[in-house]
Fold this protein.
Amino acid sequence: MTTIADELTIERRGHQGSAARRRTNFVIFLGPAIILTVLFFVVPVIIDITVSFTDLSRSLRISEFTTEQYEKVFRTDRRLSQVIGLTFIYVFGTLAIFNVTFGLILAITTTAIRNVSGSFFRGVWLLPRMSPSVLYILLWLWAVSPTEAGLVNQVLMQAFGLDAPLDLLTSAPIALIIISNGFIGASMGMIIFTAAIRGIPEHLFHAAAVDGAGTFATIRFITLPALRWPISFVTIYQTLSLLVSFEYILLLTKGGPFYDTTVYALYVYRRAFESGQYGYGAALALFLIVIGVIVALIGWRFFDMERLLQRPRIEVH
Amino acid sequence: MTHWKIGTAALLGAALSVGSAALLAATPLFAQETVKLELWSRQDPSGPLRPGNVVKAAERLNKELEAEGSPKRVEVAVRESPAKGFDDDALQLLKVFGIGEGPDIFIAAHEWICAFQEDGFVLKLDDYIAKYPQHFGTIFPSLWSSAKCPDGTYAIPQDAEARMFFYNKKLLREAGYDAAFVDAMPERALSGDLAMDEVLEIAKKVVDKTKAQYGVLHRPNKGPDYIMVFQAYGSDFADPETGKLLLERDKLAAAFGWFERGVKEKVIPANNTAMEFDALRKEFYTGNAAFWMYGIWDLGSVAFPTYGLPQDEKAFFADWGWITGPAPQKGGKPVSLTHPIVYAIAADTKEPELAVRLLGHASAADLNTDHAVTTTHLGIKPEQLEDPRYAKAWPLARATELLKITKFLPNNSQFGDLNGIIFAGIQGIESGRLSAQQAADFVIEEASSTLEDVIVK
């Protein structure tokens, strides 16, 4: 015979047990992620903030703590406004033309054709992402070489009768960095959108066909609404990724000619590592972190990402 | 028993005395101390004997130490850096010193030496140089100025060279210039009769009248050669009284104007700074460009071995030649630039004396001549001129003429950064982003906002 008090004690013990288990699970499952976040995000940000308030320069010595770097950012750096403007064009251009739009077109077209052909074309578009960045850019350098040996010039001169070879690296460097990054970026959107399209219940397409909907109407009223969430995710993720990545630009144009393709992240790199102004580079990098956080928060709000993370929007059957 | 004891004692005594004698005789062997000196050197195919000669010098120093009865022996460990140029290498090395991992000896471009001196990384050498006249006494006095910082000498010149405008005589003749005109160009340039704009005129005629695509080509990255143009137009970049960086707007604009005219006339390609180094050389040495602004060592390193230019003096000068940096106007002063590479010793090395002596041996005339004749760099001592190998290497003797008018880059710790800004200005002009005046303004603005103590006039 157990009394009510005994039952209560047992129940409380049970609760205590589950609370302890919850704590253990928290440590086991979230602990590594928290450690990684602290090590690779929080600690670098703290180091960056500290360095930005020093005069750390090429010999890695700190002689004083100072706000000089921020004065430079706000008062004397005349290049910064151009760099920020270019970064906006680069990020927006790559995102709008390739990472989202082209990714979407690839996903829709490759899912509309036969599965084998679709997989083949998706595989082709994944190749740039799978190639080492140096190899990928070497191919680009050959393609846009300003001599008659360059692929683009060979095609233009032989097939279209162009007289003199084009020098795209000098005449259209911004377009080149957008296209070269876009060809890689599009594949991520393509994969995510393809998975999402595959997740749309097939009977919706049949119903639309019965109702007499054409291809564009089906895309507009069935496919795109179902892709709202993946599009939001790709947009925010790729915006952040484009803001901080510069390796393809560095390899292809070195940020030039002049400062024409020096985006913000590359500008930070050039200041810090090519000129040895580490303190100043840290101050500039801090703004990049702030811009990244603001962009992420705006995107979060704009696309209502909270709802996305609450429950799945695409039913999987 | 007593008898036994005496015998044992005698035996023990004898053994001890023999043992002690043997031990004493062997002492130098056991007490020999190896001093490891680490040498930092950039992997540079245009000068493999810069570190190589230091390694060889260790053998000579060790013999000397042995003869002196010193227990010390020197061993050199070479630490090679893969930096693509001397500027990158110096930045890398400054960081290495900054974290306390610096080498004992290093090889650097001379204009960087004061950056090491300002941070206290490099050993002051005046007393040592005076102490070892047998090693350093005959080094050309003019070269020492490239190794000095405001308060003394901090490096030992390792070599020198001459920078010039190489030109393709065949193309000039094809363009309609007669042989007498073409052959007289070096002399006219040296006397100030051939001006900078005439180079553009000649180059334009070559581009217009021959199959050659380019008029004047220059290096595609930051470096010293194009500074020659700025020096021709009067910019020396250092205030002679204070040693601070000096920027004179009009003189900068005049030099940038030369590049601007060159691009407008389609003589300098708009994408010169986007081209690869090897591609530029190929264009010149295979007859697709009239002029190539570079340095004498390019003959030995690339022109002869890679492009098969004639190594015989007469055959070479039949179709190829070089002029010094011309004067800005007729009757003005021509220029040439030399860019010595130097040896330096870390301030915190444990054996400064041995390091100095080691570099003294590495600077020996015969070893330096090995470097000079194999890589077409100029020697550092007058006695090298008497070496038959040196005399036989005609590019060296011919380039030595230019040393009469040669200049150095300023030994200012910020010059490397300034040069990066100047290079960006050239890139801005050539790609059509800036006018000459805007480029001068850009350099002044950029330098004033990012560098310290810049005097602007």
